[in-house]
Design brief:
six-stranded mixed sheet; four-stranded parallel sheet; 37% helix; globular; single chain; alpha/beta
């Protein structure tokens, strides 16, 4: 029997046994609660009246379970695939979003999202994803982990990019359904759908059988989001649905983010397992397309390509056992770039682009990150100040009175040195904007 935990001051009190909501019941309660509070400072709520008129002056919201989604933001800030004046799909020498501003959210305190499905917590993961969207739609945030009251000075957003494959897989439809219930017209773009369309674009209509490899987190792979989305996208385009083989990586994303010395070992193990799985399927076609289905993986695309080439030419007992399983030319699909293109098209379709009315660069972008509630001394924390694994993965959905983490401004002091170095070295446009944030 589970017990409800209510916070009075800093003390958890057990007030009696509760029957946990089903995931769908918990989601219904959250959606109703988010738009029904009369208290503008209440957690997990926002003012739907802000969206009665489309406001192209609002920033664009981008969120992820951590900092990996900054690779998607980097692609958005850098992409030049359209003419900003005519909207034609042709580069004009100017960034497509040069006059837009952005709000980024990394739910670092609750990461990694990919572990929730493995622990049977899909319902809680779905709730986290929708709460991320509610934060972006609202004006509420905390100035610090110990602030006495929240601030209401954040701008709402006019579009939402789910820059996380796992969050897209488990929460995209929930967000879209919630927006419909709230009668809020805000475009939502997910990286999985964009990546699937990218796969479809690489396939000619009369091509023979194709084989696509998906490298992603365990959570994303277990959702089967990519195989389903790829089948839907290619089928709608009148193209032959390719074979899809997945490899759920356990350690690579963390190794990349921490600049670990075992990155190459992780890549080698994941690629070999991907190809072995393809071999065991009995497929007669070589892997010729690789979807980088985690926001961290584009940062090591060259290393992944090299490992595929090395495995293809690997010799054992005078033969090359993997040569026919890996194409000599590999097409990489980076959902981040495709998401940026989809975002441009959606803003244009909804007439939400700011470019037509702005001559100057917009005000600074904003970055937020989640941290444990520093005012609650009863929270179970690790020595480094993060939520313990046991606590993190035993929480129930539907307990809307509990706010054990806070969204606060992302400062350089809140990020590990390895993450800062990764951003500075690999994400120059993001670093330029993050460096402008107050310390």
């Amino acid at each position: 029997m589970r017990f409800a935990l209510w916070t009075i001051g800093f003390v958890f009190l057990e007030v009696g046994p509760i029957q946990a909501d089903s995931p769908d019941q918990a989601m219904t309660r959250l959606v109703s609660y988010a738009s029904g509070s009369s208290d503008p400072s209440a957690a997990h709520t926002f003012d739907t009246s802000l969206f009665r008129v489309a406001n192209s002056d609002f920033p664009i919201g981008v969120f992820d379970s951590g900092i990996g989604g900054l690779t998607v933001l980097e692609a958005i800030l850098s992409v030049d695939s359209f003419n900003n004046e005519t909207l034609e799909p042709k580069a004009d020498g100017k960034p497509d979003f040069e006059k837009e501003r952005f709000i980024y959210l990394g739910d670092q305190a609750n990461m990694p999202y990919g572990n929730y499905p493995a622990r049977g917590k899909e319902g809680f993961l779905r709730e986290l994803v929708v709460k991320d969207a509610i934060f972006l739609l609202g004006k509420r945030f905390w100035e610090s982990d110990k602030a006495r009251a929240p601030s209401l000075a954040k701008s709402p957003v006019k579009a939402i990019v789910i820059a996380c494959n796992t969050a897209t897989a488990y929460g995209l439809e929930d967000i879209r359904a919630a927006l419909k219930t709230w009668q809020v017209s805000v475009p939502v773009i997910g990286v999985v759908e964009a990546g699937a369309r990218g796969v479809s674009e690489t396939i000619a209509t009369k091509d023979g059988r194709r084989s696509v490899g998906v490298l992603a987190t365990v959570g994303t792979c277990s959702s089967m989001a990519y195989p389903k989305a790829i089948a839907a996208s290619t089928g709608l385009a009148g193209k032959r649905v390719p074979e899809v083989v997945q490899q759920g990586s356990v350690h690579l994303a963390n190794a990349i983010e921490s600049s670990s010395s075992n990155i190459h070992e992780c890549i080698r193990g994941d690629i070999r397992q991907l190809v072995e799985t393809h071999k065991q399927s009995g497929s007669q076609s070589a892997l010729d397309t690789i979807v980088l289905g985690c926001t961290h993986f584009p940062l090591v695309q060259d290393e992944i390509r090299n490992e595929l080439n090395d495995l293809r030419t690997f010799e054992e007992n005078g033969s090359r056992p993997y040569e026919n399983l890996i194409a000599s030319q590999i097409e990489f699909v980076n959902p981040a770039v495709l998401t940026a293109k989809e975002l441009f098209r959606e803003l244009a379709r909804h007439r939400l682009r700011k470019a037509d009315r702005m001559e100057k660069l917009p005000q600074a972008d904003q970055f937020y990150i989640s941290v444990p509630d520093g005012s609650n001394t009863e929270l179970p924390l690790n020595p480094d100040g993060t939520l313990t694994t046991e606590y993190k993965y035993t929480r129930l959905p539907g307990l809307l009175h509990i706010e054990d983490t806070r969204f606060v401004p992302m400062t350089k002091q809140l990020l590990p040195a390895a993450s800062l170095n990764l951003i500075q070295q690999r994400l120059p446009e993001v670093w330029k904007r993050l460096a402008q944030q107050p310390d």
